[in-house]
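The records we work with from here on pair a chain with its fold. These numbers are not coordinates but entries in a learned vocabulary of local backbone shapes. To see the layout at work, look at the sequence and tokens printed below.

. . .
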Amino acid sequence: MDVSQIASLATSMASAQTSDQVNVLMLKKALNTQAAAAIGVLQALPPVPANPNIGRNINTTA
């Protein structure tokens, strides 16, 4: 293997590693954004009624 090929391989591997790190960071940010949105949606839901028998059943025969 030629010395220039080793240097080229090392450079391309370092570039790929940097690219992978950027992709993982962007994925983490996207997941954090989705988690924040999900928390917002869950907090916007109305509270559950005090009586556990109310609002739990759906009449599917009507």
